[in-house]
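Honest question from a wet-lab person: if I give you the sequences of every part of a complex, can you actually get the arrangement of the whole thing, not just the pieces? Trying it with mine:
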Amino acid sequence: MPTIGIPQPFTITAIKTENVATKTFSLAGSLAAEPGQFVMVWLPGYEDKPFSLANANPIRLTIAAVGPLSQALHRLQVGDSLWLRGPLGRGYKLHLPVQGVRRIALVGGGYGVAPLLFLAQEAQALGLQVSAIIGARTAASLLLVEDFTALGLPPLLTTEDGSAGQPGRVTDALRLLLAGSSQRPQAVFACGPVGMLRAVADMAAQADLPIQVGWEAHMRCGIGLCGSCEVGQGWLTCLDGPVFAFNPVQAKEKGTGST
Amino acid sequence: MTYLAEKTVMAHPALACNFLNFKLHSPLVLASGIIGTSAGLMTRAARHGAGMITAKSCGPAPRAGHPNPVALDWEHGLINAIGLTNPGAEEEARLLAETQTQLRPLGVPLIASIFAGTVTEFAQVARTVASAQPDLLEVNISCPNVGDEFGTPFAGTCESAAAVTESVKNAVTCPVSIKLAPNVPDIARIAAAVVEAGADAITAINTMPGMVIEPVSGRPVLSNRVGGISGPALKPIALRCVYEIAQAVSVPIIGTGGVSTGKDAAEMLLAGATVVGVGSAVYYRGVTALEQIGQELAAFMEEQRIWSVEALRVRG
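Yes, you can. This is the full assembly:
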């Protein structure tokens, strides 16, 4: 159950400008949360919207100014408050069903990188070996690169226009990572735009690797009632997700079909 | 992107029961307004312990609903003002027909839910939705009577509740359940009035109007300010309403309000409900909530040496 049901105010302790459209807000407070879970952020007089946690202790949120709420959040200063409820949804599971997984790959595109930063820290704390791939359209859109580097996980970078890192997409970098034999990742955790998630999931399925993806959806209630965030045939992003797991090895063993 | 399919879970045989002419696998009914917005979601609930499924209410025209925030957990229950978001009766009829093709093979009756602003409009919406051949039509009369000076809900007076009942009964051939509101001085009187006007069943209760204020901002949190209280806080109110209605009428009752566990379901049956509606528990326990509650109810019945749902109801 979420620690916070009624939105509660948190003081902003730091604001870091990541790029012209994106800021990371650090808050005075923490949540008992898993990477991949989200909070519904609110400002009185505005709609509440879901944001994945970039960190839980202390709370950090990486927010792009794309609508009325996020634009209003971008006008806040250190010392101001924003309100939030949560954590909501199901996060990434690092206690993996497959025995003996020691090496994992994190694949993040665009704004999807934020929850993967949180996941990277948890994975390291469990002693897992983490490879990170971060991709974006252009160099200025690559997010949280220094934060991953500061963890000792300098990420493989890809940009579609070739302005930083390897030219191309995250799947190109993942293909190379999966091609190696001895240090090949044994599970994939992804977050980013829908097209990216589909491509990464297909690649993981072909490689027989379990994968967990962080899905995004327009949300209204955020608590599993209204059906607005439905994905696929009858799955709720806010209640069953936002992280959805697919284990192709298990599927083959059980002979389970797919919807 | 593919997802693993889930198998249908068989309900404990002790949960088999009757409602009107239906033989149900389980007395647990998915309540209206909870994940009843698509064939996929309703089929999933039907495969996980629902004896009947109630779709989201639809009205004469599409409605977007209220801006966020529309719902939250206030610790002792939920509050919501989604705003009757719906695609309109014609599109809903198409959705219901699609859902029926998946629910019929599972033996899970589909309950359509409707609302409207006038007595005549109720009949029109009922006719449109009935074309999808739902097994039961549930009439949500908690919405305001736009013809009334104060916008009093139809559920608020015997006369308006009975008028809607008669209008809908004249418009359709399927059985009709009237969904009553708890915020009335005498719910048993309203129940008796709708039964006299032809209701085949009663659903009790809808949510109780309430408000959550966030003290630091000083504001009600929901964009609509007022919302409907559901979940555990509603249970004692719902039990009292169902009990009083059951004393006053003999039609079957879908008893809803705050049921989250098998024992809660037993209490609702003991209060006089024929079957038990479950809504907010999906938030607390997931989409498989009805399956879990059903297992707990069966275990309770076994402990108490009660061999049928009907026996539990008449014991109360």
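Two things worth pointing out. Chain B has one domain: 24-62+85-213+232-315. The first strand of chain B starts at residue 17 and ends at 19.
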